[in-house]
């Protein structure tokens, strides 16, 4: 009993008040494996051998993570030499055939006759990735007794784009402030920066753009370079490079020049000197991300130059240092085109083959702007002689902010598996992004981060899954997002199948539900003006037509939808002929994209036999009903989830349920004012007048 | 050994990964009492008796806090009836002679012959305060075996003022975003709101103003009232009422009126209806805080009316509901007076006796604006027929933000102990604030909060002490701030005297050090323009003279300082004759206030024998040297403090050291350009030119 008392006393001393779960630990919780399952894991985690290599900072954090993970999962492993006993884990850096620089291999081997788990890689960063994978195997209760796993990332640059401003506001951020505490940097680096790096490394993310693409030149001044360097130093052991968004007009604003003309030698010299200056303090600086000539941002077109002129000039500045320039194709010129969806392709396609090797054109998944659903962007497959990167949005600007549960895996997967048919069938977007379609080496997948100072990082527990699935897909764009959801749910909550199955099911349908209650059947951009919160199908007028809802829905007495066929804007011609022809053909096009490509009568017959009007109304209702179902599902999960996280999700689902209903009611009221048709049987009339919905305002909405 | 294994296993299950200390727990950490000292505490914490009263929400949280605290400190107490055994703690609500409504009594009594600790109060909130006090006794290792304590707060309304905007920025906030998550309210109440209430209740704070005094009318619209109500519901069990800052022009902005004239019946009706509406959802709403006709805010003077007209009109709206109006005396009219320091007195003194009984005039501690040192505000003692509240600033707008270690206890104490001599000697500011000097019942002490979403709440570990000492002084304005610092240090870090003594010493001198390295000898308002960060003695020009540094320092070839004697602005005449005469008399005035009241030659002889110039330069150096000493002291504290918190403080002290030096160098460079005198022997010349100091800019400084 004395021993017991001592042990308990000791334990209390170490951790007297276990803190409530709050989501801070993400999918790296490392909670103890249940007793019945622990044996085999403990047997393979008896000891950690000293690394077979000089212990670099990366190997140091790899070993620390392994110790931390195993301590939590199966108890503290001791230190022992490989081959001295069974169950030793050996970290090893040595050339590995068949693996990329960042790949890893996990094998169960006999060393001196003793069973040893060897986590090996050509470079130390691969070992860190292997460690996270090994811990994931235990976290998700997969067998670890006879391992032979090899994995290499298919995409070279797997990046987060933070739209974080220097005053710590976050454009389209719904999870608190920017985690980058510019004011206190470099004198103080928040310990959270280490956990940020750990989380990213655990899913293979190897780059982060620290500041908003709507950039300020200040971020390129010496004080801010020093601040970025402090972050780079913190992230470096985790294999994460820092990048900066560069404001194209910086030569004027901080360089004392009169112009930012990319062909002006003084401008090129400014950027060369600036790059040299940055690389002096951040030797592995990743490079620049640039939003040019879009939404009012400065760019080469201000001087009659082209995207090629601008991008290549910057590329020449960072190239000697091994840096890259990531040039966004999300252009949005002052002149309004006949069809906004066509602009990116029109501007960039002609330049294929003219960009430097260290330039990547970063293309949003769709041609408009991160809508709940968009057909894949026509540039994918259309620029075989250029490096083409993918830009997904992880933060849910158009998907209910952080209080709607929407798992984005299926959205990402839908885009990545879309077939561009650029070189015939099987020319998927994934193969463009991973470079295999056209043999490109410099590949990029970027996600606009949903990370902020909220304790749970992403604003909600389930939005963590979107960060997670993005990283996993950047590693392997052909991965299965249902399996990824299951991994996430197990690590984040519990392996109990009574939880995993229903919750993964719920997640998998959640994005389609959001499409249904917001913008069904190919509708898009119907959100409230500027903040993009809630329904705003009536948004019209103002600065430019292509920032309005009516521009995209084209609702009228005659019907609904944007004609992008040859009889309309002919945006379908930007796709490979077979693809474009199908989109343009009512018999071929998937109804999920119907109103994206076609303007149809209210009485158009859907495959269900419903008229367009009736089918539309029913779709909205289906979306609402799905959220009802999520509430029911989640209520039943209470036994498997700690109270604080369960309560948070419950609150948010209630908000989502109310807002889904509001979306349905307001949209039905608006479109009904054009269709003038009765609601289908059983469908309730909106409880408010259209005028009441239109009159609602939302001051102080976040993320603007 | 089997028992040991089980015990350890169990402990791991409960808390597998004890989180690093990060300051979130504030002074409520409840870490186990060291074994050698635990006995007597455990003996008095054997059991908690069911409360002798219906268990109200407040009693419920009181019992929960007691359980939580005792569990952490001495092990989980069981539940047992009082008198059934020794060591039972009894919570009791019953009329208590000699205590105020919020007071408590803690006594060791015999119940049925069994030793019982009775925590008793007239109302349930007193029991909660008593519980926190009892836990504090254990936390600070005071004996609890023979208790006979009684305590009542001396000030009625003990309030935080949050200068928090509806977009979650915080004016003069240096600790992250606003903790009030307006967007997700009322659908979701962050669990942090409960910990906020616990922390405030633990130091007796009983009111909180949720929004900035530079208010938006939106906060008075139905959606925001519902959000405030959700917070009120959360805070209510902890005895905390919510208040709102009211924008005086709200009748125009949200009421559809053409005027906000307080004598217009429609305006009065608007406010009456608005009050009724608020009280319908928040029955115990505290009332309105108003900043009127100051720094551009609207107010009654816009309509040719007076502060009395405005305040009384609002008071009549909330009065029937028991609400109060807190009207700030920090007025800052468009017309610039000869001496900014005189304006508050000039505007308010004539109205003494004209305000309603439920109006409080809230006066800043000094006549300028929360400087490192100010003489007490001349309004204290000058309005005997009015309710006069104190407004301190807890956030360190002018004191180095959250990265300078400055314990504000001595600043608050200095003001509170200042003798107004309004009714002869002993008429201290404390006696004005607690109402005893003139028999006022409605008393207020307000602190402008330093609380934000930073994990440690206040931006730094040591800034928590400023929140703490403010609360303790609001409970008892005559309390000793060194003793309070010791309580705080013990609860927040450790009772080890090798820590407590040097750290409390360090804290107690830290404010004087900041005065020395920023604005010694009565200088004031020498900070950078607008952000108030760092030295800006050269700040001149711009919108108004009294927002500049040169206005306040009046440096010239002839000397330095603001003449507020009868030969100058005669601000000294606003004080009681004996007080004003002393301030005006070079033989009487304390040198700490010298340049506040006098313009003196550079060769003026200080008491030390130094010339003003030499003494000034030495003072700056003394401040820097003190910060050096704090670094040394803190480095030696490593054995007593967890690594994460120790590292954070270390980082910040380094920042403070560098900035103290910068303050000294820049100030010496600037004032030296007027004095044209050599530096005293041993003093180093500033390493940069004055022009270099002046050229420094600080974009994206927080808190603006």
TrEMBL record, chains A, B:
Domain called Glycosyl hydrolase family 67 C-terminal: residue spans: 459-682
Known partners and oligomeric status: Homodimer.
E.C. no: 3.2.1.131
Keyword hit for Repeat: no
Species this chain originates from: Caulobacter segnis
Protein family per UniProt: Belongs to the glycosyl hydrolase 67 family.
Taxonomic path: Bacteria, Pseudomonadati, Pseudomonadota, Alphaproteobacteria, Caulobacterales
Keywords: Carbohydrate metabolism, Glycosidase, Hydrolase, Polysaccharide degradation, Signal, Xylan degradation
Catalytic activity: Hydrolysis of (1->2)-alpha-D-(4-O-methyl)glucuronosyl links in the main chain of hardwood xylans
Record domain Alpha glucuronidase N-terminal: where: 26-134
A Pfam family the protein falls into: Glyco_hydro_67C
Protein name per its UniProtKB record: Xylan alpha-1,2-glucuronidase
Domain called Glycosyl hydrolase family 67 catalytic: residue spans: 138-457
Signal peptide: 1-20
């Amino acid at each position: 009993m004395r021993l017991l008392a001592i042990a308990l006393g000791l334990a209390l001393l170490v951790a007297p008040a276990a803190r409530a779960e709050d989501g801070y630990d993400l999918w790296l919780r490392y909670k103890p494996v249940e007793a019945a399952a622990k044996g085999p894991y403990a047997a393979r985690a008896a000891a950690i051998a000293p690394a077979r290599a000089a212990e670099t900072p990366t190997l140091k954090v790899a070993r620390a993570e392994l110790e931390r993970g195993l301590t939590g999962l199966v108890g503290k492993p001791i230190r022992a030499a490989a081959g001295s006993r069974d169950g030793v884990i050996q970290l090893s850096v040595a050339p590995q055939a068949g693996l990329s620089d960042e790949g890893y291999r996990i094998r169960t081997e006999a060393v001196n006759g003793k069973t040893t788990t060897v986590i090996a890689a050509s470079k130390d960063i691969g070992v860190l990735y292997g460690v996270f994978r090994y811990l994931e195997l235990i976290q998700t209760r997969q067998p670890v007794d006879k391992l032979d796993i090899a994995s290499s990332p298919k995409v070279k640059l797997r990046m987060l784009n933070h739209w974080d401003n220097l005053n710590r506001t976050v454009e389209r951020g719904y999870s608190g402030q920017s985690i980058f505490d510019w004011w206190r940097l470099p004198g103080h680096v928040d310990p959270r920066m280490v956990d940020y790096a750990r989380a990213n490394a655990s899913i293979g993310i190897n780059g982060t753009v620290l500041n908003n693409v709507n950039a300020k030149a200040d971020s390129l001044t010496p004080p801010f370079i020093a601040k970025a360097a402090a972050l780079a130093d913190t992230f470096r052991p985790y294999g994460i490079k820092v990048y900066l968004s560069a404001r194209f007009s910086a030569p004027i604003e901080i360089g004392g020049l009169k112009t930012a003309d990319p062909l002006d030698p003084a401008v090129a010299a400014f950027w060369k000197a600036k790059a040299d200056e940055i690389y002096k303090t951040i030797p592995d600086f990743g490079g620049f991300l640039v939003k040019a000539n879009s939404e009012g941002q400065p760019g080469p077109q201000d001087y009659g130059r082209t995207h090629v002129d601008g991008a290549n000039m910057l590329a020449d500045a960072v190239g000697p240092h091994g840096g890259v320039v990531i040039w966004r194709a999300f252009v949005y010129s002052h002149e309004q085109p006949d069809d906004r969806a066509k602009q990116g392709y029109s501007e960039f396609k002609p330049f294929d083959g003219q960009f430097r090797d260290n330039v990547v054109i970063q293309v949003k998944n769709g041609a408009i702007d991160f809508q709940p659903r968009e057909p894949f962007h026509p540039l994918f497959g259309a620029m075989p002689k250029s490096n083409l990167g993918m830009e997904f949005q992880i933060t849910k600007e158009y998907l209910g902010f952080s209080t709607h549960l929407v798992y984005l895996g299926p959205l990402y997967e839908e885009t990545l598996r879309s077939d561009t048919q650029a070189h015939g069938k099987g020319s998927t977007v994934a193969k463009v992004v991973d470079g295999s379609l056209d043999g490109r080496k410099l590949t990029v997948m970027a996600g606009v981060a949903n990370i902020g100072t909220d304790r749970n990082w992403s604003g909600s527990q389930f939005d963590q899954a979107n960060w997670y699935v993005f990283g996993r897909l950047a590693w392997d764009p052909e991965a299965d997002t249902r399996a990824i959801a299951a991994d996430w749910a197990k690590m984040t909550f519990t392996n109990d199948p009574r939880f995993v199955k229903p919750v993964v099911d719920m997640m998998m349908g959640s994005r389609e539900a959001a499409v249904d209650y917001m913008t069904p059947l190919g509708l898009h951009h119907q959100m409230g003006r500027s903040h993009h919160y809630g329904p705003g199908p009536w948004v019209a007028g103002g600065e430019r037509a292509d920032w309005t809802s009516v521009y995209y829905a084209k609702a009228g007495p005659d019907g609904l939808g944007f004609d992008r066929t040859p009889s309309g804007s002919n945006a379908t011609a930007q796709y490979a002929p077979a693809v474009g022809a199908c989109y343009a053909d009512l018999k071929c096009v998937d109804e999920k994209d119907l109103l994206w490509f076609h303007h149809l009568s209210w009485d158009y017959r859907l495959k269900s036999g419903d008229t367009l009007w009736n089918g539309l109304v029913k779709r909205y209702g289906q979306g609402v009903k799905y959220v009802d179902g999520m509430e029911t599902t989640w209520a039943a999960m209470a036994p498997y989830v700690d109270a604080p996280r369960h309560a948070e999700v419950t609150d948010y689902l209630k908000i989502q349920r109310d807002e889904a209903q509001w979306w349905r009611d307001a949209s039905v009221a608006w479109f009904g004012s054009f269709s003038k048709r009765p609601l289908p049987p059983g469908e309730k009339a909106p409880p408010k007048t259209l005028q009441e919905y239109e009159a609602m305002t939302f001051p102080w909405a976040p993320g603007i």
